[in-house]
User: Fold this.
Amino acid sequence: MVFTKKSLGQNFLIDKNIIKKIINSTIVKNKNIIEIGPGKGALTDEILKRNPKSLKLIEKDNQLCKFLKNKYLNNQNIKIFNRDILNFNLCKVSEKNSIIFGNLPYNISSQILVKIIKFKNLTSKFTNIIFMFQKELGEKIVSKFPSSNYGRLSILANYKLEIKNKFFISANCFFPKPKVTSMVIHFKPKFNSKYKINNLENLEKITNMLFSKKRKMINKSLKKILTDSQIKKIPNLKISSRPSEISPETYYKITELTEKN
Ligand code: SAM
Assistant:
């Protein structure tokens, strides 16, 4: 008997059409697949039907892990890691050109996404990332500049990820039924050839710093990290702007300049 743990965001997908729709986002046959938070195996079963080359599952819940190890006992292609994804070295276990699926636990989904965006070799390791989020968070990730949802997450995501597709999932497609609507986003990692940020943690720090004072003009914060002459070099920058009034490209330029200091 496996008990459902709310603390681990365990809302299991039960709608077969939605499960198929998620897995049909990309071609799985003969590909190396990673799944984060497989739960009882709703997506896993559908992935297996499409004959992947290999499948790696990362599940934190000990009980679910035992359940999965038993369920897939005879399948040599599956490797199950009973680990917390937030302190697991995903890059180390991933083959080149892998695909990641995950109906993510809502409470840590932005942390998981940011962890993956920061991988140095993201584009060589992963060709497709298909994640499910709470709708409100998903809207922030895909939001364009300028818009009310625009912020830290869309700036970070836009640097490394192209958004191929998105769709919503009703709460009725899960058991237990969550209180919120979900959103699936299909990302493709991309090279950003225009801006050269060496360490994405710097972009993360800068966006955190500026958006922590959302209503304030950026001039004071900028002067803490850049010289006056550097600030003047940034194209189209009005230093009386608020953080949400600056384009992603300007954030990338600011980060590039701070890395030179
Ligand atoms: N994929 C399944 C499905 O669609 O029915 C389950 C999705 S459920 C929303 C999230 C899953 O992530 C649960 O199985 C939960 O135990 C697992 N999980 C929660 N926190 C985790 C963590 N830090 N690392 C790995 N797995 C985690």
Notes: The beta strands are 12-13, 32-36, 54-58, 78-81, 98-103, 126-134, 161-169, 174-175, 182-189. DSSP finds twelve helices and nine strands in the chain. The mean pLDDT is 96. The chain has two domains: 6-189, 200-259.
